[in-house]
């Protein structure tokens, strides 16, 4: 079942500006983990902002969780369905105490006190931050702050979690913490749309959408997308290191597969290569 249906979206930030989105069409199924890649200015963040009504398309149609997203939409209802996490965790922390920050949105929604406490506790447990419930938010690491931001969204019980480069300002440990949380939610059936510029994060998704100059350039499962390394390099994007190594070996004449993403897959190919099970073309 589709939870996001975008058809021919066109969007400009001002009437006389060039379109940031140019007839973008995209469908996301319930429970999918979709990563969106693209260089700066490709339109990926603008697309994300359409999914919970921060931006409204000038042309085309968008339906999210059965809600038509346009100027007449009930945005409050939409944002209960679609939770959004942004890049800088410090810009998303409202309160000085962790559990109060997670409860902030619920208080604004008028959720009863007992229900609010139950949801906060569940959300903190979901991101493995229960032991920090009484801690000061300013003492948390970047990864912990981002997990608290995600908990605040989870407490609202959305159907879709949209994240706009949530790990861009984090160190490797913080990035790993956030990705671990996302995989946990995905296993539990949540629909996730992750905007990222990290190839290793995109490779972990069910599907990758590559945007360039406001258009969808590629759309498919990770092995398919990263086989198009030449196209990705031509628009300023990289590929996972394992994939890049396969392309370099191909250039040297070795008959290695290109659909290699993980370290485990790469090691298996190199083992075959060293054992002589993979040959070299005669030049």
Walkthrough of the structure:
This protein is α/β, with parallel strands linked by helices and 283 residues long. The protein has two domains: 2-239, 3-Layer(aba) Sandwich (Rossmann fold), CATH 3.40.50.300; 240-283, no CATH class. It is 38% helix and 20% strand. It has eleven helices and ten strands. The protein has helices spanning 44-50, 75-81, 98-109, 113-126, 142-154, 172-187, 199-202, 222-227, 229-234, 241-251, 263-274; strands at 2-11, 21-29, 33-37, 59-64, 67-68, 82-85, 160-164, 191-195, 207-212, 215-220. Strands 6-7-8-3-9-10 form a six-stranded mixed sheet, with helices on both faces. Strands 2-1-4-5 form a four-stranded antiparallel sheet, covered by helices on one side. A hairpin with a 2-residue loop joins strand 9 and strand 10 (215-220). Helix 3 packs across helix 4 (113-126), helix 4 (113-126) crosses helix 5 (142-154) and helix 5 runs parallel beside helix 6. The chain is globular. The mean pLDDT is 92.
Give start-end ranges of low-pLDDT stretches. Answer: none
Radius of gyration: 21 Å
The succession of helices and strands, N to C, reads EEEHEEHEHHHEHEHEEHHHH
Q: Could you give a short account of the major beta sheet?
A: 6 strands, mixed
What is the strand arrangement across the widest sheet?
Answer: 6-7-8-3-9-10
CATH fold description of the largest domain: Rossmann fold
Q: What is the count of DSSP helices, taking H or I runs of 4+ residues?
A: 11
**Residue fraction in strands:** 15-25%
Helix fraction? 25-40%
Average pLDDT works out at 92
* Shape verdict: globular
Count of individual beta strands: 10
SS-derived structural category: alpha/beta
CATH architecture of the largest domain: 3-Layer(aba) Sandwich
Distance between the termini: 50 Å
């Amino acid at each position: 079942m589709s939870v996001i249906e975008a058809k021919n979206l066109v969007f400009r930030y001002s009437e006389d500006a060039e379109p940031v989105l140019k007839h973008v069409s995209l469908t996301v199924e319930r429970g999918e983990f979709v990563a969106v890649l693209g260089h700066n200015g490709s339109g990926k963040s603008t697309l994300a902002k359409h999914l919970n009504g921060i931006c409204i398309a000038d042309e085309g149609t968008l339906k999210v969780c059965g809600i038509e997203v346009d100027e007449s939409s009930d945005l409050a209802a939409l944002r209960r369905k679609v939770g959004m996490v942004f890049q800088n965790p410090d810009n998303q922390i409202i309160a000085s105490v962790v559990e109060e920050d997670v409860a902030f949105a619920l208080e604004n929604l008028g959720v009863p006190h007992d229900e609010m406490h139950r949801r906060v506790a569940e959300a903190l447990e979901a991101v493995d931050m229960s032991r920090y419930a009484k801690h000061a938010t300013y003492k948390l690491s970047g990864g912990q702050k981002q997990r608290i931001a995600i908990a605040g969204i989870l407490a609202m019980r959305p159907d879709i979690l949209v994240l706009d480069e949530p790990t861009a300002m984090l160190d490797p440990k913080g990035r790993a913490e956030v990705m671990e949380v996302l995989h946990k939610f995905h296993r539990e059936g949540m629909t996730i749309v992750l905007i990222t510029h990290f190839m290793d994060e995109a490779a972990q998704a069910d599907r990758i959408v590559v945007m360039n100059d406001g258009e969808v350039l590629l759309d498919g499962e990770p092995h398919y997308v990263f086989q198009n390394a030449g196209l990705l390099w031509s628009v300023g994007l990289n590929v996972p290191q394992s994939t890049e190594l396969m392309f370099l070996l191909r250039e040297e004449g070795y008959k290695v597969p290109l659909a290699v993403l993980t370290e485990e897959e790469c090691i298996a190919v190199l083992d075959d290569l060293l054992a002589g099970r993979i040959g070299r073309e005669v030049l």
